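Hi support team,

I submitted a single chain yesterday and got back a structure, but I'm not sure I'm reading the token output correctly. Could someone confirm the output below corresponds to the sequence I sent? I've pasted both exactly as they appear in my results page.

Thanks,
R.
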Amino acid sequence: MTGGAPRRVIVGISGASGIVLAIRVLEELRRQAVETHLVVSKAGERTLQLETDTGLDKVKALASVFHPVRDIGATIASGSFRTDGMIVIPCSVRTLAEIATGVTTTLLTRAADVTLKERRRLVLVVREAPLHLGHIRNMAAVTEMGAVVFPPSPAFYLKPEKVEDIVENIAGRALDLLGFPSDIARWQGAG
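Hi R., thanks for writing in. Yes, this is the structure output for that exact sequence:
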């Protein structure tokens, strides 16, 4: 946001695999003193349980504000609530489809829809493979609306030694695309 206003971002977590990416992004935004508004889908809560030993309360504590996914009256559901943008990390193909069609059923997809209509930055870290034509068409549709689709593809040229190295790189790239550059896991050149 401009004019000295605090930096403010919406972070959505859907049910796709890759919750650790969202946790790392929340940690880094907190380090940068960015005000974060977190919304987690029901499937995202379930995936968090399956993929990590981190409870929802610990993830909520990383955010400045937590919004229940069914609270359609939350501030982030309105275009008059100014933000610098939104990231959905990870983004399931169901969430992608709702955003692509504008047929939103939860606060997470409503907030993404509002982000697009207000012409703010929306980064979708779509985590699915392989893709069928419907997925690809939805990716094209949201791209045409102004979103950035970022599949979390590892950068093997960084020669990662452990999973955490890959997470760092993907989280750093996602933050770059959102407009919050970070120095985590960045390519330093070949020479």
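A quick pointer for reading it: The chain is about 40% helix and 15% strand. Let us know if anything else looks off.

Best,
Support desk
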